[in-house]
From TrEMBL:
It comes from Pedococcus cremeus. It comes from the Bacteria. It is found in: Membrane. The chain crosses the membrane at residues 6-26, 38-59, 65-87, 99-117, 123-143, 164-181, 193-210, 287-306. This is AEC family transporter.
Amino acid sequence: MTGVFEGFATIGAVIALGALLAHLKVVDLTAQVLLSRLAFFVASPALMVVTLGAADVSAVLSRNLVASVAAVLVAGGTYAALARFVWRRPLGHSTIGTLSASYVNAGNLGIPIAAYVLGNAAYVAPTLLLQLLVLQPVALAVLDADARGGRPPLRTMLARPFTNPLTVGSLVGVGLALTGWTLPRAVQDPLELVAHMAVPAMLIAYGIALRLGPGLGAGGSAVEVGTTSALKLVAQPLAAFVVARYLLGVEGHALLAIVVTSALPTAQNIFVHATRYDRGTVLARDTILITTIGSVPVILLVAALLG
């Protein structure tokens, strides 16, 4: 379990650094917005090229993917239904809430946990690809449309994700993985250097927001935050377990990998998207905080029961 604690400790330390810098007035909320934009438009697309370019794309065609999709549909679909029919949330807010309830931290936390706890970083690849190539582009298309107002033509909606830097970076990375091509060192080396900025920028921006933004639950619904957190920490891994074990017949270490991946906390880049589009920012921030803390005992419990 050392890898679990190391992964969470690393993330917590960088978030704490952002909060400390804000507390000491070295940076302010303007810096938080700037870091979020840098992560969104520059560093994260580079990270997608580097990460997916080295991924085993064939891993997406596995039982792991089927269970992951089912778990996302249960957690995200439940929140979307509540947001639409109970809380009457607007489209952009509902989109961020759906992501908060179902989009796992498969990158900067999932990869080290898969490598050090599960023994193989490839275990997280199906979830990573699902999120980058399906969930994220669809969500960003909806957020783009909501930010612009009205409902654009279908052709515009279909084309819009491919003008998003994160989607473009993901597609380039998948193209490299499928073809086996490698970028020239003159291109690969700068890309890797910029990619290394993505996760620290996200986490420092998040720490600044925690220190200078509204308090936990302020400006939002405690019930809604509790619901997104419960869906992420309980409903999603439970759905992954049921589908993988009883519908797909997965057992042993493979089952552990599927459930642990689904139990990962909400990804920090959801807060970046919320900030970028100014939709559901407090909901995303609070859900990330609660699930990041709460996922530690959840993952330890999963490991104890299935390991």
